[in-house]
Amino acid sequence: MRAVVIERFGSPDGVAVVDLPDPAPGPGQVVVDVEAVGLGGVDALILGGGLSAAYGFAEGHVPGGEVAGTVAAVGEGGDASLVGRRVWAPTGTGGGCAERVSAPAEEAVPLPPGLSGAGAVTLGGPGAVARFGLARAGLAPGASVLVRGASGSIGIAAVQLAVRAGAEAVAVTASSPERGDRLRGLGATHVLDRAGGGAGPQGFDAVLDVAAGPDLPGFLGRLNPNGILVAVGIMAGMPPADFGAVLLEGFRRSLTFATLSTDTVPVAERNRVRAAQFADAARGGLRTVVHEVMALDRAASAFRRMADGEVFGRIVLEP
Q1: What region holds the Enoyl reductase (ER) domain (predicted)?
Q2: What is the pLDDT of residues 140-158, one digit of tens each?
Q3: Which residues pair with 74 in a beta bridge?
């Protein structure tokens, strides 16, 4: 089978399409004939080399954390009724950019009619992160929420979910007027630039932060009393080591910093939320935003666009 591998870290041009053996399903696994692969921010971070030392990624790594396709085989202990069904499935920190992949059978979620593979891999991982991140933030009707990093697939889902929850003001970072208009079309009441400037609310009950990085302390400082910042990603890198000083300096404002990984959410609950979101999207409710669908052999071009900050939504690769 054809697969994308990282031959050299540090550059979008460090990927290549090679031939690899077809996977076989191990116990509790399914093998999926891939229809679509969602490229995410984690893939870009891995290719950039920033995570290779900490997490042991090596040359030959296959990127891609989620796929949609048809189950071709089920391993021992798996649900045999999945064979022949279209599913969304996670591949963890990699393995998805291939014509055929193995994935945990218990996390394969059947897809409803009317939802494309591209739509599924744009929503499956990001939608759950947004849903559980907003829950961790204690989002309530009338709250003001800043979604930081809103032009990505997590942020786009979070904007829509926050509005549905009755948030009074959703202030969203964006890097261009066009992106701002698109985010308003998704329900954002105000749009701020990357530095947090622009017209609109300047204090927030909650911040859902996909970016982190050196600017994180400034967003902690913009929380209202009893406000909470929930970090769900590190697309801009790690925050300063002393970022917690902002919390202590604002001690009398009772601020909270939290992190959220869907790895800590029970599988059954993740599956339930994903199935509901897929059904919602298939009905035309929750909108999935696909920046572009590209062939697998154009993976280098896809990573270049991600590195240049050109992507609004998600790039999808198709074998």
Answers
A1: 10-317
A2: 999 999 999 999 999 999 9
A3: 30
